[in-house]
Write a structure and sequence with these properties.
CATH class of the largest domain in chain A: Alpha Beta
InterPro entries (chains A, B): Rossmann-like_a/b/a_fold, tRNA(Met)_cyd_acetate_ligase
Subcellular location (chains A, B): Cytoplasm
Keywords (chains A, B): ATP-binding, Cytoplasm, Ligase, Nucleotide-binding, RNA-binding, Transferase, tRNA processing, tRNA-binding
Pfam family, one (chains A, B): HIGH_NTase1
Oligomer: homodimer
Family (chains A, B): Belongs to the TmcAL family.
Order of helices and strands of chain A: EHEEEHEHHEHHHHHEHHHHHHHEHEHHHE
């Protein structure tokens, strides 16, 4: 049994994702595919446009056999934390043979070399990095120039400019760090960049698709997503369950900030960013303006969104320290073939497999991380217009295809 | 100098209010009028449709000379607390000669007799009350029947059915309780009941006016409010500062409940109403549904709204115990004539007069109650579409006419 692992968000699943999946299967020749997928909140520091069950359904319709939820603690953090959480989770299933990720670069060797340096930090790299930081460069820039210096490869600057390369490097770092036997592959991405706002070309980005849905309605994206995505989205919107946007949580986040809710226990809060956020919250009731007022070279929009989401979802930074990766396997959905993999995982893994959420307390020794997922759903469904119940994780059936 | 005190909300100020003001002046022959007015949240357990400065402007335009804010702690509580806070505040100004309130009843003697019994609780009343409660009647019903029994006056049942009579009785109780020298008057209300939803007749109710604004726009109410009210509302809405509705705070309140935020320190929470509220919050994301799911004979909509607002505004029930009425005089606005009254108050009162909010800490010994007003404004402005700044109490000029 050859099992491929992929790390996805499917926000929503589009033609580019289908292409990546097909190419990955071709390349790795695996018979089974397991996806680790972000839950109701994603790495951009936003809620997903529709909930995790609807996106798991898309994944299964696309041919994936098993969908596992990436805990919200990791799903809404830095590229490094996101990648570590996802790779560690895939590895802990004990059945994954290879992973395939998309990258703008497409050259695994090059990404791997960068990952090695970043992980091992050889003396010349460390020295160059320190020098650059001393000059007042941002960490990202200092790191980039140090890498160029020690490799003599100027093209690395370009490599580090796109988010899928950066995520790919983090996947490779994580695999090396945990000494995983999983074999990595990369697929060169085609079509628009992840961040592109334009709906055009063969493959549109998820960002441009969400934007088009917001501005023009769901019909506008029909050439860029599979039919099943379109149907799942249509049904969700008709039922008043989405589209969900960060804006929906704006009053809550602003309220917490104006209440002086502490930010000091949130990951990545340092250098006075907390005061800057409080100050911005006193000037606006709109989360977009809040982010604009707060962002800087050092604190990008996405770092700030992560902080705000961790405030909203009560994610304490100590969870990152006290847990070495996810300590449970939460199943969101599976196909017929997925049952076989699940059985195999059950035999091999040391982690509890959560299929019935009601049993989580007896199954997970330290359930603090899992409880963040439950709370994230309680918050997420506040944006529903219908059936906006809490404790949905306890009631929602696993998606089966 | 003869000074009339009135207790108002002006949400918004309409023709019925103008009538009451004119009649009160005629009846009491006072030359000056001081209004104690609810701030940004009102006794119905809702935000006011526009903020306290805009409503103070309406009051001044209507001919009132001085507008004092009723602390939000009292403004958003039971009729008894509302009345006690407002009467105590008026009394502590030390310049008020009489107060005039509207009532459906119009007969001061009758209301006063009821107030006496409720305050003094003679043995036969107490016995009848206890008996009725033993039969499982609600407190309101048990009280009503006990009053009828001891007075032999069956018409009291009808008297106790309308909110302005009930408030009036509470004003009279409060005056007696603090042994105030202020002389009470009542004006028989004309036109629609306070709670009427229909926009009709000579005087429409504030409720029906707000409803018409929400459903049909501001033009629909032009026959029911003075021109200045219309202009102030139009300007406010144009500037993105209102209309503000309870709905605007729905996500925050639901979030707090789904977070399991404790309700036990909130006034009037007993008999398991907290669990009922939590349960309802797990079933809906809409505050109207939440209230519908929670209300009962014992816990009316308005009691539940008070609880939810106290949760939102972080009003602890111990404030009611630890303070014997407002401990500051917050000036919202004054006319030329109002200056004279302010000077007189300054000479006579023992309470600090707050005209510059920045000085509040040095002026108010225990500023916990005042800080609830400041926070209420910070929360209120979250519903603004523009200029949604916090700390507005520090910046907003006093309204002068």
């Amino acid at each position: 049994m050859e099992v491929l692992g992929i790390i996805v968000e499917y926000n929503p699943l589009h033609n580019g994702h289908l292409y990546h999946l097909e190419e990955s299967i071709k390349l790795t020749k695996c018979q089974y595919v397991v996806a680790v997928m972000s839950g109701n909140f994603v790495q951009r520091g936003e809620p997903a446009i529709v909930d995790k069950w609807k996106r798991a359904e898309m994944a299964l319709k696309a041919g994936i056999d098993l969908v596992i939820e990436l805990p919200v603690v990791y799903a809404t953090s830095t590229a490094e934390n996101f990648a570590y959480g996802a790779v560690k989770l895939l590895d802990s299933l004990k059945v994954i043979d290879c992973i395939a990720f998309g990258s703008e670069e497409g050259d695994l060797e090059k990404l791997s070399k960068i990952a090695d340096i970043l992980l091992e930090e050889p003396p010349d790299y460390k020295r160059a990095l320190k020098e650059n930081l001393g000059k007042g460069l941002t960490f990202a820039k200092a790191r980039e120039l140090a890498l160029v210096k020690v490799t003599g490869d100027e093209s690395i600057s370009k490599t580090l400019q796109t988010s899928n390369n950066i995520l790919g490097i983090e996947y490779l770092k994580a695999l090396k760090k945990i000494k995983s036997s999983i074999v990595p592959f990369t697929i060169k991405r085609r079509g628009a960049l992840y961040t592109s706002l334009k709906l055009e070309g063969e493959f549109a980005s998820a960002t441009s698709i969400r934007k088009a849905i917001k501005e023009k309605g769901i019909k506008a994206v029909k050439n860029y997503v599979p039919d099943f995505t379109l149907k799942i989205l249509e049904r969700a919107f008709k039922e008043g369950q989405g589209p969900v946007y960060l804006q929906d949580f704006s009053p809550i986040i602003l309220y917490l900030l104006r209440s002086g809710h502490p930010l000091e226990n949130i990951f990545d809060v340092a250098e006075g960013i907390d005061n800057k956020i409080y100050k911005a919250a006193s000037k606006t009731s709109n989360i977009k303006d809040l982010i604009k007022l707060t962002k800087s070279k050092r604190y990008t929009e996405s770092r700030i969104r992560h902080i705000l989401l961790h405030l909203l979802l009560k994610i304490d930074k100590k969870l990152f320290k006290e847990f070495d990766g996810p300590n449970y396997i939460r199943v969101l959905g599976f196909s017929e073939k997925g049952k076989t993999i699940l059985k195999e995982i059950k035999k091999k893994t040391e982690l509890p497999i959560i299929t019935k959420v009601a049993q989580y307390k007896s199954k997970i020794e330290d359930s603090r991380m899992f409880e963040r997922d439950l709370f994230a759903t309680d918050v997420y469904t506040l944006a529903y217009k219908n059936f906006a119940i809490s404790k949905l994780d306890f009631f929602h059936p696993i998606i089966k295809l």
